[in-house]
Automatic annotation (TrEMBL):
Biological process terms in GO annotation: protein transport
Organism: Pandoraea terrigena
Gene3D superfamilies for the chain: Lipoprotein localisation LolA/LolB/LppX
Organism classification: Bacteria, Pseudomonadati, Pseudomonadota, Betaproteobacteria, Burkholderiales
Protein name as catalogued: Outer-membrane lipoprotein LolB
Family: Belongs to the LolB family.
Coiled-coil region list: none
Amino acid sequence: MQMMSRFPWAVSRSVRAAALALACTAGGLVAGCASLAPPAPVTSAVGASVEHYRGRFSVRYEQNGETRNTYGNFDWQQNGDDATVQLLNPLGQTQAIVRENPRLASLELPGKAPLSGPRLEDVMHDALGFALPVGGLRYWLRMQGAPGSQANIERDPVTQRPTQLKQDGWTIDYQAFFDGAPLRVKRIDLSRDLGGSPLAVRLVIDE
């Protein structure tokens, strides 16, 4: 995605501090910049598959007619149908924790009671101004469509690696993969334009 081709992963300490100050005032991501306690490690239930992703994220979205950007680190833990996503600011402080399962979704912000609802994207959008498609991402990170709706997947004709997936109004571009087997995605770009409100997300997985 051209508008996110230059991503500020490496910043000086002063710029990191400035970014943290901006994060405290923009986008609704934090309240008072108080830190949240990190979520407890996932304990695997018998027969459940456990997945763990750590990396960096960038989000570009529109709020009140203005383009906004936020970025930081993430820690994604998934045990069967239960997913917990921890968002951290550039200094490594936990700023939001997202929890989702087939029955309920919740969002925890510093200094506030957990917000919950049947649709996580609605909860996140109301609180943060943008929403990560956690429900779909759990499948898209595996390079497969989510159940319940039509997904179109394009593959490289030579390697047969997926290059793009479209589902539920989202376009997912697979930009890089880890070396070796089994095939694992290293970087994906997601985009959606819903009702004239563009949203672009980049995830770079470190491990």
